Amino acid sequence: MAVELPRSACCLVTRDDKVLSVSRPGRESALALPGGKREPGESDRTTAARETWEETGIIVMNLSSLFEGECEGYWCTCFEAESFFGEPRNRGEGLVSWVYPAQLLQGAFQEFNRKVFDTWEKKKDRA
Fold this sequence. Notes:
Blueprint: E1 7-12, E2 14-15, E3 18-24, E4 27-32, E5 35-37, H1 44-56, E6 59-71, E7 74-85, E8 96-99, H2 110-126
Parallel strand pairs: 1-7
Antiparallel strand pairs: 1-5, 2-3, 3-4, 3-8, 6-7
């Protein structure tokens, strides 16, 4: 019998050639996409939107599923925001910043992020 992993979700928000990132609390160099654990009764899409707002103050819209996979003991779904509203601000969850994707390929979640960005690049090539 397979054990089901707890669920989490994250969101890829882009502007120009940068992506929105959040540092992990107490670890400013540990950058990640906005995201977190799914609450009871939530869908993955709702989790991605809620976590992005909680961590960055950004309201994301038109989320499309980009990638799913295991990340740090969770089954994580990453969504791409086709649009967003607002300007990012620090909300006590970590430092919020626009960074180049390569900066998320170091440190925390690098393997998962690499798969997300590979999928994203392939999607852009098809468009």
